[in-house]
Design goal:
With 193 residues, this protein is mainly alpha-helical.
Length: 193
Amino acid sequence: MLSETLDDSVLIGQSLTEPESFAALFDRHADEIFRYAARRLGLELADDVTGEVFLVAFRARSRYDRAWPDARPWLYGIATKVIAQHRRAERRRTQAMAKVSPERPGGFDDRSADRVTAEQLQPRLARALDRLNSAERDLLLLVAWADLTYEDAAVALGVPVGTVRSRLHRLRVKVRRALGGIDPFAAEEPQHG
């Protein structure tokens, strides 16, 4: 199919005269936006958020900067705004995660030690996320969960990349402090590019 070989900016441009071609953009990115929304708000709202994101994107497609061949940062920016409208549900979810006591399973080997450590950190990490303001939480989750580069996160949030770098540095310090010196980002390499 021809639409599979076109970059996102071409598809969006094409959809201005052939609206049905926007469906290819949905097919290409809906699962990723759904997963991000599910992690932020839970499965019960993820379908609605995904639908809202693509409805907003469809309505705003004439304003898309076609110099960007990948629409993911734009879509994540829209998702961030739609999620903000659902913030109360996200707050309840992180508060519930913070109350869950981590249980250490019976036998485990070295391969599952990382998973167990992550599960034990979940309530503390949820409390730390709950203490962040919405702009901080949005940036952290776009980089950590959506796996956006600093540049893509800057596009998604409509801020300069230097702002992303400095905010993320402060966030890492804040989260590390909230986790008692544990750095949940230690295994990650900084994203450049």
